[in-house]
Design goal:
Oligomer: heterodimer
Largest interface: A-B, 21 and 24 residues
Structural class of chain B: alpha+beta
Number of strands of chain A: 5
Structural class of chain A: alpha/beta
Largest sheet of chain A: 5 strands, parallel
Strand content of chain A: 15-25%
Strand content of chain B: 15-25%
Number of strands of chain B: 7
Strand order of the largest sheet of chain A: 2-1-3-4-5
Chain lengths: ~150, ~230
């Protein structure tokens, strides 16, 4: 399964290069350079994984993470941080990020985390779908409430 | 770097000059890390292309040219950071030297971009103004400008923009940082008492509020008499 990935990083050339590498690996990739851009993109598209830089020009990465999780709770987020921002990335984990990596990140590690994050989202969606089916079976009228 | 007087002050037991050096070093390391991270991805991308070529897919010259262009741009960015770092490092060479204030402000502004960005604020440096030269302690002057930018950044709302202007005046020069929210004499006094007063006295400089109380003015004297 190839996931729909959003890269959020104000280092445009970094984002461009990473996007190309993910595209080669058959992921569907979008790129935005601001926190607000990320929130807009997530509102419009059901991304599986978001690669989110901790430091953005307009909004703090943690702030973006929290808002993003409000909009799409199942979308998984991998935080990217510089050396000095590891504490922020850990704070991100507490706020619901799937994982974090320090830049420059080991490529295999990054691709592995994207894969696992995508799988987790798919599993969560499957659980929700199964729960709904089970609910419909036991109580068909509940489908009317959806 | 700062002279004996400077070593007595500072925040939390730190010498203010050491603090500036640490903060600027943190900015530089962050910027270099971004350069390395981009080049790291580009090297990875080249490996990806080579792996594709090994499987029989033709190498696309346009794609290679894009990577080469990005790597060249990152080398340029690295050189720019290195040049700024070198200028900053050499500002401690002499305790008294003639500096051009626009130039010094651009240098400190370059390093302050990222801390400002972290607070969600922008700033406008003077463009194309007249040269304003003063004789002063270059490193201590940089320290004063940095501290004033920090003060200003703490008195402006997120999304705001600090506007800077430099003028000559009778005793030397003045640097105005405007665009702040309302700032009072109490704020300014508290700021001076937070370790800035000795710096001001070393540089024969004064701080005051702008008339609209939405900015501060650093009035700094030439020190040729010292």
């Amino acid at each position: 399964m190839k996931w729909q990935v959003l890269i959020v990083d104000d280092e445009e050339q970094f984002a461009e290069s990473l996007a190309e590498r993910l595209t080669i690996r058959d992921y569907y990739v979008s790129v935005v350079f601001t926190g607000q851009g990320a929130l807009d993109a997530v509102s419009q598209t059901n991304f599986d994984v978001v690669i989110l830089d901790v430091q953005l020009p307009d909004l703090n990465g943690i702030e973006v993470l929290k808002k993003l999780k409000d909009i799409k709770p199942l979308t998984e987020v991998v935080m990217l941080s510089g050396h000095a921002q590891v504490e922020n990335a850990i704070e991100g984990m507490k706020a619901g990020a799937f994982d974090f990596l320090v830049k420059p990140a080991d490529s295999d590690d990054l691709f592995d985390k994207i894969e696992k994050a995508g799988e987790r989202k798919a599993q969560q969606e499957e659980r929700i779908r199964a729960a709904k089916v089970s609910d419909y079976v036991s109580s068909p009228r509940s489908a009317l409430n959806d | 770097l700062a002279g004996d007087k400077g070593k007595k002050e500072g925040r939390g037991g730190w010498d203010g000059s050491v603090e500036l050096f640490c903060k600027v070093s943190a900015v530089i390391s962050h910027e270099f890390n971004n350069v390395l991270a981009t080049m790291h991805e580009d090297v990875g991308l080249l490996h990806d292309y080579l792996a594709m070529a090994a499987k029989g897919r033709e190498l696309d010259p346009d794609r290679l040219a894009k990577v080469a262009g990005r790597m060249g741009a990152q080398v340029e960015k690295g050189q720019e950071i290195m040049a700024a770092m070198n200028r900053f490092a050499h500002s401690g060479d002499e305790a008294l030297a003639e500096i051009e204030l626009n130039d010094t402000l651009r240098l400190i502004g370059y390093f302050f971009r990222r801390p400002a960005m972290a607070k969600g604020i922008g700033f406008e440096l003077p463009i194309g103004g007249l040269e304003v030269k003063i004789l002063t302690n270059p490193f201590r002057m940089e320290e004063l400008i940095w501290r004033c930018l920090e003060f200003a950044a703490n008195h402006i709302s997120r999304g705001g923009c600090l506007v800077m202007e430099i003028k000559e005046n009778g005793r030397g020069a003045q640097l105005e940082i405007g665009g702040l929210g309302l700032c009072t004499e109490d704020h300014l006094t508290a700021f001076e008492e937070s370790g800035v007063s000795l710096l001001l006295s070393d540089l024969d400089a004064r701080l005051k509020l702008t008339e609209d109380e939405q900015g501060i003015i650093i009035d700094v004297a030439n020190q040729q008499g010292l």
